[in-house]
Amino acid sequence: MQHIDHEQERFYTAIAGHYSAIFPFNPQQVAFTVSQAGSVAGRRLLDIGCATGELAFGLAEQGATVTAIDLNGALLARAQQQRSHPRVEYLQANMPHISRLFGRAAFDGVTCYGNTLVHLPDPMHIGSFFNEVFAVLKPGGALLLQILNYDYILNEKLEELPSIDNDEITFTRRYRFSAGSPEIRFVTRLLVKATGETLENETSLFGLGSAALTSLLHDAGFEKITLFAGFNAAPFGGKHLPLVAACRRPE
């Protein structure tokens, strides 16, 4: 979670203690990162929207030195407590400011998974963020993204995503759409089974389609832009929820 927004801050703080149960770590994220960015051993990586730190920890275990940032202090506290690693530095930082924080050509690769990107409010802010990523990447460095497939979601007007249900929680996710607008209201309900506590939240997302995403990446200077249907690198297109993108700063 990265955009400065009090509504989003409340949302992620409320679910921070259960984040790993809601969104369990997918080891394919590490495998995909290595397959697209090349061997990460000895490389410096930036993980944007690191949440509770599973990806950063996994990449560090592969030999990378990882700077992992998130805006939410509660998520970062979980990461520091549960995913501490000598090659991971967790920082509270805002994604639009990364070039001033880290300088130019500081990283061999940048990851931004977990639908983090669409917390930015519009194409202007997303394009500005891509310019920031371009600046902090070394020539030839990879940017790897994961959002949802908003082509599918908006075309089909999907009002509800599959519930997440396990021994610890039940997490329901609904969308409310505005006619003619890509803004989506994301409405969630979290049931904590051990206590019976229910947490309800609502926040805004920007429904960024694949064509707009590709255009914004191209305008920022990225090349070799490829879209996938998931971290298994299946071809993009059709009725699937993930959208994963890989691209590079030119050499």
Main attributes?
251 residues, alpha/beta, seven-stranded mixed beta sheet, four-stranded antiparallel beta sheet, 9 helices, 33% strand, globular
Brief characterization of the structure:
The protein is built from nine helices and eleven strands. The protein is α/β, with parallel strands linked by helices and 251 residues long.
What does this 3D model show about the protein?
By secondary structure, this protein is an alpha/beta fold. It contains nine helices and eleven strands. The chain has helices at residues 6-15, 19-22, 28-37, 54-61, 73-82, 98-102, 123-136, 150-156, 210-219; strands at residues 44-48, 65-70, 88-92, 107-112, 137-148, 160-165, 169-177, 183-192, 197-206, 223-228, 242-248. Strand 2 (65-70), helix 5 and strand 3 (88-92) form a beta-alpha-beta unit. The radius of gyration is 17 Å and the shape is globular.
